[in-house]
Amino acid sequence: MRIYKILFSLFLRKRFLSFPLAISFMTLAPPPFIACALANEYPEKTIRWVVPTPAGTSVDIAARLIAQPLRESLGQVILIDNKPGAGGTIGAMEVARSAPDGYTYFVGFNGPLVTAPLLSGSKKYNPQEIFSPVVATVSLPHVLAISGSSSAHSLSEFVALVKTQHDRFNYASVGQGSASHLAMELFKSRVSLKLSHVPFNGGPAATQALMMGDVQALFSAYINVKEFAASRRLHILALAQDKRSNQAPEVPTFKELGFPSIEAPLFNALVAPTKTPESMIRIMNREIRAVLDRATLKETLSASGMDVMGGAPQDLKDLLLSETKRWEPLIRQLGLSEP
Fold first, then answer.
1. In whole angstroms, what is the distance from residue 207 CA to residue 234 CA?
2. For the chain, how many structural domains are there in total?
């Protein structure tokens, strides 16, 4: 904006424009050469990333790890502003109502970016309409785990066991309508299984119930069950994505094991209020992809159980659309949408 103001002063001083015409010039959208100059100066001040989960969660950790090197490349502070609540929708709506000036972004995940609007029935907001995609940042391997005391030690054995004794099997989730809930319901529908759903308030409680034998299965982020699998308190059976993860190279996909492909990716992504200038989105996308490509950051994220994603804004847009198409029919079928 500084260049724009300088040009305005020059126009007045050199009398290239009358004062009224100069004022009109300033209130119009900047012409292409001015827009280019403004983009070259971006960013000029602190950028705020709204994180819709508490500090210390995987979404928060990923945001902070990415923001640190990004501060250096952009030359500006990246302020992490935690706004948890309502499954991430409180933070989402705050960003959606923010000025589309390139200085406020939403660090979203599956919930507020895909499933929460579908679960609300009335569709209080449409992520594709209120946000402009910037970049997908990280993914977390999503695995099916069973109790370590189970007599099943493979996916085929587990399925056979459930089909013969289905009245004895329950599964945990981290909450009604959560990714762990929907992934299991998708799996059940694909292989005709009957298991009763027991929702818990968050991952730790659900994992504890699985280890105690109160429930017999759980879809979970790999990082949350990795240590328990290593100590054989849990068995990890399969990975819910289209290819193996660098985080868990030993865990096969459902398709590899001869079952219908179950894809229930867990991902984080950065989006901006709609109408944010494309030039600023391109700069943010480019700089984030550059830091994600650094070996040191990849190693740090990997240690936190995350795989790097990246890609263009269009790639994120396609991901959000495909995930919406994946889950909307199942949510409707399960009657999870509020009237």
1. 9
2. 3
